[in-house]
From TrEMBL:
Superkingdom: Bacteria
Entry keyword Transcription regulation: no
InterPro entries reported in the protein's UniProt record: Aromatic_deC, PyrdxlP-dep_de-COase, PyrdxlP-dep_Trfase, PyrdxlP-dep_Trfase_major, PyrdxlP-dep_Trfase_small, Pyridoxal-P_BS
Signal peptide, first to last residue: none
Protein name: Pyridoxal-dependent decarboxylase
Cofactor: pyridoxal 5'-phosphate
Family annotation (Pfam families): Pyridoxal_deC (PF00282)
Lyase in keyword set: yes
Length: 475
């Protein structure tokens, strides 16, 4: 054994203690750390011929990068719909790395633990057992996996086995949606269906939800044409929901695959106050839900729930790999999703679900919604900002209260200033053709104090930017 490997092995416990102490100090400072900053260009260091050992590497990491660590898992990071990491989820994540189980290895505990965790998640979301689940990296790969099964179904309708013949054997592919996430078009590109197969339908007035009558008209104008419909269950800007029940009812009259993108909106199911938005989703063919959003487990983790595991098997099976066994006889999750090699993503979710239960997650969802609505009310009363849509759940979408021609430049300068100050982080967006901003609250740590502090910072920066603009104009 190499001498430095041998030295680290002999001091493994000490290295783990040092690492835990470093991580603990970071977590203790979470509320005080900036949520963002301008990181300077850091010169890349070359690979050393002789290593320094784990302890020295930790010290080097702190010296080179420690001052640039930000609280992107903290209570005032409102960008990218990012949850934090619950204490129990972090416990599971550390153990997952320490145990280093291959989730595909059925000779270990991994398979049984993953199976149990998926059952816990079905119960959390009140999904029927008819839905088979599988873990993937995030909502993008979940949408990809669900749409890959949909592509196989579409092939069946045309007498084509896409898994064998390729996407080129399909013709007249149509994927319908009203306000799809960008990952849907990305998945269509990766699947060989092409972004141009996406047909955007009209939305209801003042909403991001589909006009179901427009979908009915499209069906009437394309009789007998099988298609895929991607329903929004929580849009990025306003957390709007398609009327899934009305869409599902159309399946009785016309053949189509219903995929529900519920990356974070699926968590409406955990609260009696909000689960009505998901009425009918139990009739979907496939459902995307992201775990590193409102479940608050570490990146990267999401799930795909599907009623059609046989179609997934046709697409993702490892045929001809004798060492993996017969996919048809030996159930293994690697035959139902893109990845073969993957870490045990189920473990952080298992720990957090067991630690906090349905009540804990119901409280987080309802707490974050109240906080987002509280922030929205403050923005609506502000002289600097205006809400662009009611705060339905966890996202406030807003812009400056000024003429439209100046919005884009003002928002750019404003967000740059926010990043430098590091108190709160929001992201730019477009809503109804207007340059806008979006604050997404899905973190278990966020308190009313954080939302008040965030709003005060938004007001302060807006006042300073508007003041500078006025001075500049006068000069």
């Amino acid at each position: 054994m190499n001498a430095i490997f041998r030295e680290d092995l002999s001091r493994f416990d000490e290295l783990l203690e040092q690492t835990a102490a470093y991580a603990g100090e970071f977590l203790r400072r979470m509320n005080e750390l900036p949520v963002s900053m301008e990181v300077p260009e850091i010169p890349s260091a070359g690979l050393p011929e002789k290593g320094m050992g784990g302890s020295a590497a930790l010290e080097l990491f702190d010296n080179r990068f420690g001052s640039y660590l930000t609280a992107s898992a903290g209570p005032r990071y409102f960008g990218f719909v990012t949850g934090g990491v619950t204490p129990a989820a972090l416990t599971g994540d550390w153990l997952s790395s320490a145990i280093d189980m291959n989730a595909a290895d059925k000779s270990s505990l991994a398979f049984a633990l993953e199976k149990e965790t998926l059952q816990l998640l079905r119960q959390l979301f009140s999904l029927p057992d008819a839905f088979e689940g599988v873990f993937v990296t995030g909502a993008t790969m979940s949408n990809f996996t669900g749409l890959a099964a949909a592509r196989q179904w579409l092939g069946q309708q045309q007498g084509v086995n896409v898994a064998e013949q390729g996407a080129g054997a399909l013709h007249n592919v149509k994927v319908l949606a009203a306000t799809p996430h960008s990952s849907v078009a990305k998945a269509l590109s990766m699947l060989g269906l092409g972004r141009n197969s996406l047909v955007l339908l009209p939305t209801l007035p003042g909403r991001e939800a589909v006009d179901v009558k427009a979908l009915e008209r499209w069906i009437a104008g394309n009789p007998g044409t099988p298609f895929i419909y991607v329903a929004s269950a929580g849009t990025v800007n306003t957390v709007d929901f398609d009327d899934i029940a009305a869409i599902a009812a159309l399946k009785h009259k016309h053949p189509f695959w219903l995929h529900v993108d519920a990356a974070f909106g699926g968590f409406a199911a955990v609260s009696p106050r909000f689960r009505h938005w998901l009425n009918g989703w139990e009739q979907a063919d496939s459902i995307t839900i992201d775990a590193h959003k409102w479940l608050n487990v570490p990146y990267d983790c999401a799930m795909l729930f599907s009623r059609h595991p046989k179609l997934q098997l046709e697409v993702f099976q490892n045929a001809g790999a004798a060492y993996l066994g017969d996919p048809a006889q030996n159930f293994n999750y690697i035959n139902y999703a893109p990845e073969n090699s993957r870490r045990l993503r189920a473990l952080p979710a298992w720990f957090s679900l067991r630690a906090y239960g349905a009540e804990g997650y119901r409280d987080v969802v309802e707490q974050n919604v109240k906080q987002a609505q509280r922030l929205g009310e403050a923005l609506e009363k502000s002289g600097h900002f205006r809400l662009l849509a009611p705060v339905k759940m966890c996202v406030a979408c807003f812009t400056f209260n000024m003429e439209e021609s100046k919005l884009a430049d003002q928002i750019h300068v404003f967000l740059q200033a926010l990043v430098k100050r590091g108190v709160v982080y929001v992201t730019p967006t477009q809503y109804a053709g207007l340059p806008a901003m979006r604050a997404a609250l899905v973190n278990w740590r966020t308190t009313d104090k954080d939302t008040d502090l965030a709003f005060a910072e938004l007001e302060s920066v807006a006042a300073s930017i508007r003041g500078l603009s006025a001075i500049s104009a006068n000069n």
